[in-house]
Amino acid sequence: MGTKELRGRGNWQTDSGAKAGKAEDAFLVAFNRTFQLSESANSGFVIEAKPRELKNIYENVQLSQEVLDNIYDPKKENPNKTWTHGIIPDYAIRNLKTGKTLYVEVKRQDGWVEGKEPKAGRGNAHERSCKFFTPGLLEILRQHGKLGDDFLPFWVVFRGDITRDPKRVREITLWYAKYPEHFFMWYNNAGEEPLLAHFNQYFRHVLLGET
To answer: Which pTM value belongs to this model?
Structure first.
């Protein structure tokens, strides 16, 4: 890839990041407004941006001595070297009365829609959301979320043209098979009501402990 292409890629990533931030902000505003209502406040709901309890979950992963002998150890160069190694979801929706938590990722991504070429759907935000299905991470999320072993402790909300991309929508639908309620296509012109209705239908009662 040449210098010109790399420069264009950087601009695309910067623009995409700014749009993603706006999508996250819209999600936060919607739920903050809802949870500040008297009925919701009495139920103990709060939303927290960038929860930090998972920020170092990889630190205590045990590796065999054979693996340790074959990977880079930065502490050999600097014994005081420290780093953060974990995940920080976009949001945690918590119920303070029950101690239950649902982790949320808001993935804003471009897509193939009218007037665009298929390559407009480039990007891997939707692919990165699949990390929550991995056995080890899922176990840790369940420990912190306290929603039980039979319930996925995460919700992924997609925003932008990806929600109408005929290729990406099919990919996501297949990946989330048997768990369709754990992703939501928040269409650009839909407003807050469908988003909040999805939460109320599939997650509210679980966070309240009303199984």
So the answer is: 0.86
